[in-house]
Structure formats: C-alpha cells, structure tokens
Amino acid sequence: MTDDRSPYLVAPRLAGIGWLVHGFGRAGWDVENILVSPALCGFRPVVMRQLHSDIIHRLDREPAGRLEGDALMTDAPGLLLIVRTADCLPVLLVDGTHKAVASVHCGWRGTEKRILEKAVRAMGRAYGAEPGELLAALGPCIGSACYEVGPEVHAGFLKAGFPPDVFADSRTRRGRFLLDLRRANTWLLDGLGVKPDAIWSSDVCTHCDPALLSYRRSKGERRRMYNFIGIRDRCLKT
Fold it and tell me: What is the pTM of this model?
C-alpha cells in the first residue's frame, strides 16, 4: 500500500503494471480531486448510481449519461471505472492477457447476488478473460469483527450457496451474526479458479480506521470513498 500521506491506497502487484492506474481512495478524496490529479490527467471518470444490484456494464466508450448498476468493465484506454464505498467492499479486476479491467461494488446485497462472480464471467464472455489469469485486489471494507447482520442476511447467503464459515456468531447479541465480506468474495473467486496468489486484500477495516469513511461508524455517513481503475492511453501522462 501507499504511505499515509497518499490520498489513496494501491495494491503492490497492480502497481507494477505500467499500462494500469488504480487506487482505493481515502476520506475526502473524490471525483474533483481525481480530475486535477497529475497521475490521472486525461482520464474520463465513470461514476454510477449504485443500487446494490448485480448489474454490470461493459464500456467501450464514455457513456452518454449516468449509468445505474454496481460493476463496470472495459478494455478501452482513458476510462476511469469508479465504485464508491463507505463500508462495502470495492474489488478491482485485471486481465493482463487481454488488457481489460473491471471495478465491482460488493456490499452484502451485491455479494449475496454473487456480483463478483458474475463480473468475472462477464469479462470472460466480453474479452476472453480466463479466471486463472486474472488479478484481483480487494480494498478496504468493514471488517468481520465489526459487521453484525441479522438472521435474514445469514439465511440469504446460505440459500445463495455461500459456506457457513463466511459468518461467525455475534459476541454480544443472540441470533445475530458477523459477516466477513472479504471471505465471502474470496470464496467466489476461489470457486471460479482465480489463483490464491493473484488475490490481494488490504485487510483494512473502514469501521476502525479514522482515515476512511464508515457508514456504520458515523451512523448514516453520506460521503463515499472513490475507488478506481483504468487503462492508460499512449497519449496520457505516465
């Protein structure tokens, strides 16, 4: 990761890819900062209205209007694919063979709908991406020790096929559970054949880290952190 002075975190393995830009934004760094960032000069940000859905958009050019959904993918240089979070898990996917990328918003609703699995499969159909050749970076999200959910969430995940060990029993309230979003989404990637050493996780809890935004910690935080990935154009600054 970058040091504490940087406005965003990076995954070390992705940072070594010359044609790629990416980051997991900290609190206070938003699209206005992106537009004036020297490292992102010339990129065109794509920001969705997120719905906690399993809707995935394939882009080959900048969209004419604001999209609704929770995942973006492209093989077009110059587009900056953004997902916004404040406890949900942002996941960035990279297919180095076909030079394609995706950004995925994985809250509990999207994870239950297996949106990350669907995004990997969509990259395969669109670009020929093979799971065994993908790199995945999981950004900061609320950690399992802090993410208490109700029995309806527990039942929904089990019905969707997730293993019981993505939950632990709440330590404070009977009949409640602690959900591990990272574990649930890593399980999806494992099941598709993404290699374990190709999956990087920040392991930073948004609820515990004051440099990050947390919906739960701030009791309805309306601001969001901006997480991004994009392919450099040869004309863009490096």
Answer: 0.95
